[in-house]
Amino acid sequence: MKFKFKLGNFFLTLATAAAIVLSIVLWIFIMTNDQRFSHLSNQTQSSPVSRQQNRTRNKSLYDLYIPTNSYGFKDGKLYRLYDSKNNLPFEFSKNFQKMKVTKIKALSQKQANYELMLNNPNFIQLTYPDEVTFKLFANFNEKNDHREFNRIFVPDSNHWLYLGNDSNNQLYRVSIKNANFDRLRKYAKTAHFKVPMTFVRLKSGYSAFYNHSTNWQVYSYLTSHQSDSYFVARLLGTSGVSSRTNKQGRTTYSLNYYTRLTVPQSGPNNEHDYLYTHYEKNKVPAATNRLLDSVYYVHRIGLTEQDLRFFDADNNAVSYTNYIEGIPVFLNDHDVQVATNFTSDSVTVNFNSINFQIPVPFDGETKSLEATTQMVESLNRHGLSNENIERIIVGFHVQKDHSHDSLVNLVPTYYVKAYGVWQTANEWQKQDMSVYQHELESEGQ
């Protein structure tokens, strides 16, 4: 027994010594290997931009930054194209990710030439709701190219594309490889949902004006919401909350002095709006980095991203909203799903937790919208002039269905952006326009 005890002590001592020696060797290896050590250091200190770039511009970036509208010609007339079975923007995006750009050539910046392209029946057009940069997409392979575009012209050839910037009428010719848009052209020819329209120039670019009153389908969805604790855990961590305060029914959770999350007021009037704030002294990111950083925050929030798309980039803000049947969804009358704002002191993210979970079979309900020109003329008479209208779209207004707590109806409505604000046409009709005009004159002084 005594011999066995001493032998056990010997092996235990030997194993302990080996572990100590191995630890010392590994420590020396890590500390003397600059590449590995600097890699670890960069990971702990990386910014949202570098974290997003390390994702190698992954699939979800292309899902969020997918064109949202398609247009084409039939018998010489321009139509908005949509097909519920064959998604034209998605088909384009699949090839867009594979193609390689070999050359970008700047062409005309004249409005007359731009409008010739808009009305050329030889192109399929796909549009983003606002400008994006070349550098956002890795396949453009341009190191410092922050030039912007929001319109893509697809010709009959698979060797080039044309890109356009509605705001300044700039056209680009892009030479490409490894792309085949034949299926996109086939889908465009067979698209069964077509609305005739024209492009009309407004303050920020060209908007689709529908030529006559049109019936738009009303859709219904069962919705769900994540709990407050879900977002607290994702944005602040499960054990890092340092304080909790309550003001006017809304609770704010804080992680030290720099990060906080304000959750909605509970009760029947809960609109499910959250505000995440991270304080950090920094320069406001450039346009491309704002687009990339906002993707990082969308991922971090943890919303369902299946139908979430880039919607607007205004000054230092970038916003996203759900697109259902090719139409953007507005919450609480005129809010989007996620709105990120960058300043020199902080990043704020306003977001809504609604999840459009289960579509209810279409029951045939539609809503008729008047011709766009007729709607605009009514706004003009009210005091909202064309020179102050930035964009016009058809969007879904979310209305609660009283037959079920979780059921909502998506009602097609004209939305108008003016003075930097999105509202329904009916909301603008109720506004005192002299107030906006006075603010505009004050800013100009």
Structure summarized in a few sentences:
Helix content is 30%, strand content 38%. The chain is α+β, with helices and mostly antiparallel strands and 445 residues long.
What key attributes describe this structure?
transmembrane, 12 helices, alpha+beta, disordered N terminus, Regulatory protein YycH domain-containing protein, single chain, transmembrane helix, membrane
What can you tell me about this protein's structure?
It is a single chain. The chain has 445 residues and is an alpha+beta fold. The chain has a domain at 59-193. Helices cover 30% and strands 38% of the residues. The protein contains twelve helices and 25 strands. The chain has helices spanning 2-32, 34-45, 48-53, 59-64, 88-98, 111-118, 182-190, 228-236, 287-301, 372-382, 425-429, 433-444, and strands at residues 69-74, 77-82, 100-106, 124-133, 148-154, 160-165, 170-177, 193-202, 205-210, 214-217, 219-225, 243-247, 250-255, 259-263, 273-279, 308-314, 317-324, 327-330, 338-342, 346-352, 354-360, 366-369, 389-400, 407-418, 421-424. Strands 11, 12, 13, 14, 15, 16, 17, 18, 19, 20, 21, 23, 24 and 25 form a 14-stranded mixed β-sheet that branches. A nine-stranded antiparallel β-sheet has the order 3-7-6-5-4-1-2-8-9. Strand 17 and strand 18 form a beta hairpin. It is globular and about 60 Å long. The termini are far apart. Residues 1-6, 24-46 and 49-57 have low confidence and may be disordered.
